[in-house]
Automatic annotation (TrEMBL):
Family classification: Belongs to the UPF0312 family.
SMART domains (UniProt xref): YceI
PANTHER family for this protein: PROTEIN YCEI
One Pfam match: YceI
InterPro entries (alphabetical): Lipid/polyisoprenoid-bd_YceI, TTHA0802/YceI-like_sf
UniProt xrefs under SUPFAM superfamilies: YceI-like
Gene3D superfamilies according to UniProt: Lipid/polyisoprenoid-binding, YceI-like
Record's protein name: Lipid/polyisoprenoid-binding YceI-like domain-containing protein
Source organism phylogeny: Bacteria, Bacillati, Actinomycetota, Actinomycetes, Kitasatosporales
Length: 190
């Protein structure tokens, strides 16, 4: 995919937004490493290829749209009941407080690099708390844009999930990944 100047719409129709969790603690063998997908989100990217500092990215994720797509590791396979319990735990008072904070937002403040290798620094707001985050990205020869950011949950007031009296817990750091298969131009009247 060649990045050309323009304004582009982002969302699940042409891209994926994933969260990957890890395990910690003495009981980590019992739990699962999760891949969670945001199923309802939207965004806009303004691309100025020759002057990346004039480019921008804004994304809004519906916090209640996070769905467990897979769980690896663990002593037993992840069941549908496990997935439902994880979804409930994500949205309730334990983690994201989706009733009080229905969206997660990212607004870029600086973009550097080239379409083949770039960094997007911006403000990430989760649970009403805003902190800086840096996204690392690459335009690959396979036609995709891919990238990632490491987020420390406790920075945003999220206490990583624990079980078995703390012997099993999610690692504080999670990896947020994106993959854009195609850019959808925004048609704006002139």
């Amino acid at each position: 995919m060649t990045l050309t100047d323009g304004t582009y719409r982002l969302g699940p129709s042409a891209a994926r937004l994933l969260i990957r969790t890890g395990r910690a603690g003495l009981g980590r063998r019992a739990g699962h490493d999760l891949m969670i997908e945001a199923t309802r989100w939207s965004g806009e990217a303004v691309v100025v290829a020759g002057d990346p500092d004039r480019s921008s990215v804004n994304v809004v994720v519906e916090a209640g749209s996070l769905e467990v797509r897979e769980g690896t590791g663990g002593l037993k396979a992840l069941t549908d009941a496990d997935r439902a319990e994880i979804k409930r735990t994500l949205g309730d008072k334990l983690l994201l407080h989706t009733a009080e904070h229905p969206t997660i937002t990212f607004r870029s403040t600086r973009i550097t690099g080239t379409p083949n290798s770039f960094e997007i620094t911006g403000d990430l707001t989760i649970k009403g708390r805003t902190h800086p985050a840096t996204v690392h990205g690459k335009g690959n020869g396979d036609g995709l844009l891919r990238g990632w950011a490491t987020i420390t949950q406790s920075t945003w007031g999220i206490k990583p999930y624990t079980a078995f009296l703390g012997a099993l817990r999610l690692a504080d750091e999670v990896r947020v990944e994106f993959e854009v298969a195609r850019l959808e131009p925004v048609n704006r009247p002139e």
